[in-house]
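Lab notebook, bench 4. Still working through the backlog of constructs that have no structural model yet. Next entry is a single chain of 124 residues. Request: give me the structure tokens for it.
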Amino acid sequence: MRKRTGMMLVIALGIMTAFVSRPAAAVDMTWTMRSTYDYKISLSFYSQEAKRSWPGPGEIYVLADSKPHSFKLVCRRGENICYGAWPTGGSSTKFWGVGRDSAHRCKTCCFVCGQSNPSRELTD
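Model written out:
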């Protein structure tokens, strides 16, 4: 009887482990961004579920020309990622997407990690 109880416990633990939520798998998401704005653009990407940003906290990417640039992010599958952009330097109130530090809302600047590789053009 003791062996059977032990076996049932092992099976029960195995079943419970299968249903415990696990962290989502890390996947790559590649954003392609292009700016036709007259000045350099500061750019960051922000997770809407976690307090994470790319390239990192307090860091930015810079778009200094009108060529397309690709940014490969390693994110969690299913994570909602938004872009935020603003003119580099100065005190302009202009922004794209969620802006600096994800301070604004938008309807078309967020994509689900693992489902797409978005492309955006930043213009006047």
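Notes after review: Residues 2-19 form the longest helix (18 residues). Confidence is low (pLDDT under 50) at residues 4-22. Flag for follow-up if needed.
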